[in-house]
Amino acid sequence: MISTETSTGIPRPFRLTRLARCAVRLRLGQDSVITESDAVAILQQCFDLTGRRQYVLYFELDKVSSISFGARRVLTAARDILACAMVGAEPMDRMLAVPYEQADYPSEYFTERSAALEWLGLMHDILCADPVEHAMSLTVDRDPFVRRRAS
Description:
This protein is an alpha/beta fold.
């Protein structure tokens, strides 16, 4: 079981809590909209919160009203996330979780907190067995062929 250890301050409405050495919980304020810049900020703060290690993510969807296309692209391509448990109770929560089934990491939707934490614990044990730091920089895959605007 993963237990609460410490937290950091993402500006409202986001709240990140470190659950274990390599585990983070993401909660949002009521009717939150996640933009691409929010997604990048979330990943940076998760990475800092875990001491620059890869981590498993427990993502509470119950207060999220939408996730932009850019945010989904950033979040589903994050190489520092080992696995993500998305937790919700409403049909809209399930709909928000569907795109993450195609993420670069294992991702599952749960309606029960205990089942999500149990799955994350198992995924952590499988994917993060080495106690040595996994990476030294934040990595987010982006399309390298997107044309840059001329300055």
